[in-house]
Design goal:
Layout (H helix, E strand, L loop, with lengths): L3 H4 L2 E2 L6 E2 L2 H12 L4 E2 L6 E2 L2 H12 L4 E2 L6 E2 L2 H12 L4 E2 L6 E2 L2 H12 L4 E2 L6 E2 L2 H12 L4 E2 L6 E2 L2 H12 L4 E2 L6 E2 L2 H12 L5 E2 L6 E2 L2 H12 L4 E2 L6 E2 L2 H12 L4 E2 L6 E2 L2 H12 L4 E2 L6 E2 L2 H12 L4 E2 L6 E2 L2 H12 L4 E2 L6 E2 L2 H14 L1
Length: 373
Amino acid sequence: MKGLSTDRPFECNICQKKFSRTDTLRDHLRTHTGEKPFECAICRKSFTQSGNLRKHLRTHTGEKPFECAVCRKSFARSEHLQAHLRTHTGDKPFECDVCQKRFAQPGHWQTHLRTHTGEKSFECNVCQKKFSESGHLSRHFRIHTEEKSFECVICRKSFTQSGTLRDHLRTHTGEKPFECAVCRKSFATSGSLRDHVRTHHTDDKPFECAVCRKSFVKSEYLRKHLRTHTGDKSFECTVCKKKFAQHGHWQTHLRTHTGEKSFECNVCQKKFSERGQLSSHFRIHTDEKSFECVICRKSFTQSGTLRVHLRTHTGEKPFECAVCRKSFATSGTLRKHFRTHRGDRPFECTICRKSFTRPGNLRSHLRTHLDDD
């Protein structure tokens, strides 16, 4: 550490960070001021540094001047090539001095260090929310600008992040580059692989609720769960004003107004309004049953079906009728039961117009017409 002040004589008067060159300090100051003097002549996007503009221009030209000598893969940026080369060498030169964990990428190392310090030095100048990474701040800022500059060349859908576009493109190509080292199952995103490993191969649930101490596999599951304590419903439908606690439920509901089905099966071309529905459907083609009951070893294609099945062993009936307090093992059974209180009969015979509370009752009734024939 000796000689640091002489090696880095230029100090930021806002955060006291030190730099070895005046131009590096100048670039850094723009992270505080928000100044972006370098503008793309094609899409008018602005940048804090000329180098970032140069890199951005390659997203328009498709230029990838940096090639890997091992596998010939090309990259738009030299740092992406350097990071890629470590996938061949296995080199992890960045070590945490607190817990000795090693990293291949400096960005991953820096992000990890903040888990020890809790530092959040990047602040949004609109809502003052703070972030531990400049990339997180950039992504967050698009919430305020509603900017979606990454467009799918196949379906023209736009996204706020390049990574989200990359993941989306795999819904068209069917590519699943992330493979589980335990069971060899493949996934379209690294996050899906990480979640799979936690769910099926480890008991790791790192996200804990501070209110009830319940733990979750994913941070977004914890965020959703917290709303059960707060009662927050911040997602409102602009058509019918219905409010939702979960962003996914809100998006799904919006499609009931638009009829949009943007997730297509690449085997039979059937379309779905939700990615999860497509994933569940796809198992019809693969015959994959990856969810196994730990009690009787019966396997299922969907986690929800396994969850319902487990209740046949435990006797759990979590769905209670608000009218008569009778309990049921599934929400669907409760829904059917509730029709007996409401007098609801949505299933009508097309021959005699008689109505029924359940589709099974209608099917039985239809046989009486067949017997008459």
